[in-house]
Amino acid sequence: MTGTIARVTMAIGAPDDFDGWRDGARRLIQAGVAPDRVGWSVPGQAARDLFAGDDPPAPRADAPPVRASRDFLDLAGRAALHRDPGRFDLLYRVLWRLQAVPRLMADRADPDVRAIDALARAVRRDMHKMRAFVRFRVVETGQGEHYVAWFEPMHHILRANAGFFVRRFAAMRWSILTPQGAVHWDGAALHEGPPASRTDCPAGDPAEALWRTYYASIFNPARLKIDAMVKEMPRRYWKNLPEADLIPELIASAQAREAAMIALGGDNAGRPPATLAALDEAVAACRRCAIGCNGTRAVPGKGPPDARLMIVGEQPGDHEEQAGHPFVGPAGHVLRQHADAIGLNLAVARLTNAVRHFKHVSQGKQRLHQTPTAREIDTCRWWLDAERALIRPRVIVALGASAARAILGRTIGVQQERGRLIALDDGARLVITSHPAHQLRLGEAARADEAARFAADLALAARG
User: Fold this and answer.
1) Distance CA 463, CA 420 (A)
2) Taking Cα atoms as reference points, which of 108, 129, 130, 104 lies closest to residue 117?
3) How many CB atoms lie within 10 A of CB 107?
4) Mean pLDDT across the chain, nearest whole number?
5) Cβ–Cβ contacts within 10 Å for residue 275, how many?
6) Is the four-CA dihedral 405, 407, 409, 410 of positive or negative sign?
7) Are strands 8-11 and 429-433 parallel, antiparallel or unpaired?
8) Which of 152, 169, 360, 363 is positioned for an S-S bond with 367, CB 3.0–4.6 A?
């Protein structure tokens, strides 16, 4: 190809219009227009050329198809969102070179390839920061609650990032306002709006105090690394984060808070608390895993200190976390119905959980249960072992696989292990059964069969 054609100007519909650039670039390649003869016109961006060019020529009839590797398209799609005014010149130059050197993108030492990669990485970081640092504030409208957020992106990422927020907050009505434009989700469709200013976003809402409390509770002083924190949460975002003004105080008090956590967790020899009251206090302060750092309060076990029977569930749910007591929600109601039917008095049993905090994901105003991981169960097992050592029950009922793992230290199949007494090293006997919440998810026929098996397992524990 030779660059013998007069200089031309290609117009792109928007600063993030990669598809428009690609169509124009394909046309120019097939017309034989070399990179040094092309200028790109982008709305809102000052012209890079002192003199306007001619209209784009038509592609040659005998022009071969334009070649572009998948590596190039992946990187170019991100790099096109960068604010660098020369980004489209760079992309076209590399596309032009790809026609003669198809494997150009594999040469990571090439200056143009490295430049595209650097632009794409900067855009990816900006998209990640937007997902991490957008903070919605609720506004009451005639149609109910509407959530509004203000963000100042470094690059042209708003439309490219909107799909993430649609998927993440599909049940909410929300708007994200930026100096570049706005996107609005009405629960069914996404709409675009004009650029906005910081004053268009509400200053705060009643939920902000809750969010600040949550942030303070998950701030783990034992893992504080200030340089790493500032790198991950750059100071330029702080002015729009409601929790940011807490950070200096949290950093200043980190050493004292870490010492208090260590003191509550046990003595200097690593021994567990010696009383149930001390155990409950230590569990409330525990931040050894992500669940303990999620802003919910720990739910302690309940029941007499010399209970013959201990019933272990997976974790407290939404009702339990709010009430501060185990088994008070729908699954607890099922458990009590079955216990009453066989004459088992739960008032003299110890009710507890494998994991003491509520693991969940928020969806609007709802908090949806999430199953703890094996690592999280194993981390919290230390507290269950301490509770078992203080209670010394003769029989333990494990409700579901998570509870069974917390007791046995390994994953088992509930259906294969249920219906029998298993001897434990401390002399107690274990009955494994399904979690009562399982019955709530079954159809009528399957529920009746599962209820019968569950009742038989409870009866076995009562006799054991």
Assistant:
1) 12
2) 108
3) 12
4) 87
5) 10
6) negative
7) unpaired
8) 360
Kindly compute the dihedral angle of the four CA atoms of residues 271, 275, 280, 286, in this order, to the nearest 10 degrees. Answer: -10
Interatomic CA distance for residues 365 and 307, integer angstroms: 38
Tokens found for residue 382: 């230390």
What's the per-residue H, E or C state across 80-129? CCCCCCCHHHHHHHHHHHHCCCCCHHHCCCCHHHHHHHHHHHHHHHHHHH
What are φ and ψ of residue 435, in 5° steps? -80, 140
DSSP code of residue 54: B
pLDDT for the residue numbered 207: 61
Q: Residue 184: enclosing H or E segment and its boundaries?
A: strand 181-185
**CA distance readout (Å), 199 to 18, 262, 387:** 31, 44, 53
SS3 content of the chain, % helix, strand, coil (to 5): 45, 15, 40
Which parts of 340-445 are beta strand (E)?
Answer: 350-353, 360-363, 366-369, 395-399, 421-423, 429-433
Q: How large is the angle between the packed helices 276-285 and 374-391, nearest 10 degrees?
A: 160
Distance CA 206, CA 103 (A): 56
For residues 42-56, give the mean pLDDT. Answer: 61
User: Could you give the C-alpha distances from 225 to 169, 230, 255, in angstroms and in order?
Assistant: 31, 9, 12
Alpha carbons 201 and 174: distance in angstroms, whole number: 12
Per this entry, what is the length of the chain? 464
Residue 61 has pLDDT above 70, yes or no: yes
How far, in Å, CA of 146 to CA of 140, rounded? 6
Amino acid occupying residue 147: Y
pLDDT digits (tens, 9 = 90+) for 218-277: 566 655 666 766 677 777 776 777 766 766 766 666 656 555 555 555 544 457 788 999
Q: β-strands 38-41, 137-141: how paired?
A: unpaired
Distance CA 233, CA 11 (A): 37
Q: Are strands 137-141 and 429-433 parallel, antiparallel or unpaired?
A: unpaired
3-state secondary structure at position 311 = strand
Start-end ranges of CATH 3.40.470.10 in the chain?
Answer: 298-463
Are the CB atoms for 246 and 215 separated by under 8 Å?
yes
Summarised one tens digit per residue, pLDDT across range 418-462 is: 999 999 999 999 999 999 999 999 999 999 999 999 999 999 999
Superfamily of domain 298-463: Uracil-DNA glycosylase-like domain (3.40.470.10)
